[in-house]
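Narrative summary of target 7.
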Amino acid sequence: MNDSRTTSVALASLWLLTIATIAWQPAMSQELRIQHVVIVSPERPHSRRDATVVVKEGRIAAILEGETAQRPHRGSSGTAIQLDGKGLYLVPGLIDSHVHLDQVPGMTGEQERLHPAMARAAREQIPRSFLYFGFTTLIDLISTPGAMARWKNHNLVPDTFFCGGAALIDGYPMNYTPKPVRYENWPYLIVEPGAESTVPKGIDAAAHSPEAVVARMKADGAICVKTFFERGFADVHDLPVPRLETIRALVGAAHAAGLPVLLHASSVEAQTFGLDAGVDVLAHGLWNWNDAPSTVEVTPAVRALLDRVVERQIGWQPTMQVLAGVRDLFSTTFLSDPMLARVLPAELIDWYGTQEGHWFRDSVVPAPMTDPKAMEAQMKANFAAPLGRNDKATGYLARHQADLLFATDTPSAPTYANPPGLNAWLEMHRLVAAGMTPAQVFEAATLSNARALRLDRDIGTVEVGKRANLLLLREDPTQTVEGYAQIYKVILGGRVIDPSELAADRARR
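Modeled conformation, tokenized:
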């Protein structure tokens, strides 16, 4: 890049940053008072009624009750923004502890380059779509500082953190990345002792030990480590998996650095491995029962594993919508769902219905679809058993008070059927259908996630000193999940946002 262009880009970036800062300051500095509200917070067994919450500088400065709620708070400017919360519920903003933010769902990089305006509109909308359904905090489980900077370069973005992806070299999911860019795209890859001579030229094996990659992640600002135990899907069953001592070393290094470790693990074998390795969170539900592939009822072996999960109080992410994100590619009604228009631009939804937009669906079932309804029924039947197994496992853990974490894996693949924000709404309904109560879903999406990711000093509850990431709901979230689709106000760091400003179809609506 020549010097003049570099200067122009730098000036443009500085101008955008300045405008964003100016736009942010009033919301951050002006006092906000939410009055006559019912506070529902997961650390308390009972709600707090007719309360006033004072927000200053983006944090909760006071919670007032009784007569004190009607008096000005000490240090009040007298020019506070007033929100009448009568008949409303004030709750912590939601946390999705498993997302992937580096892609437009359903589009390849080449397709983005062919349709730049459509891709830009989608990327601008996606952060808003998470906020529309109340998600004020996201955790990208495989990212880098550069990707995070690109994600945050929008006018309105949920608070976002990332894990470094510590994949075994050439194992899952590195195997899906073309080799010309594979090793560049996975800076935290792991090389096990004894495999040094097999690594490609240019990779320093010593820089990819468990200890070295954790140190690099920590320096890069990651708040967690994501690693993997996956032998493959469909016709692939022979991907390399890490040795137990490797992941134990990774866990030891991460814990010494203050970072929790999450393990991609969707089978009995993988989750047993994770428990033996001492990871903190099992990232995925249990849809592969290995020795019992044809049953959906909890077997003695599965029960023994789930009992270990409960006993250890290890974090467990059901990610119910993962398989639905592939199954629903074959739905004859998914793209016409009016809820989809709230979270994705109309042009993109129309494109998904084209032959080009069906590229991923066609890669799953390459044969031409002569009868779409018959194919839809066939895919529902194909996914019934693994979805049923995850339902049963999730229900068992819910009944036994396991540490369930709200997580969607949005998007779980290059599929348009895991749409941002809406995918979480669908996840909530699947969790309730599997046996979680609305109160358990609420806690999983707030305090449990905050604790698991070691963010609970700042978010996850409505308490003095916490960041003012809050939602005003019309319904009590401990009684129903329906209120998340009709949020009254979203409050992000003290900034009050009307959901109508967040919808993809806001201009038409």
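The chain has 16 helices and 15 strands.
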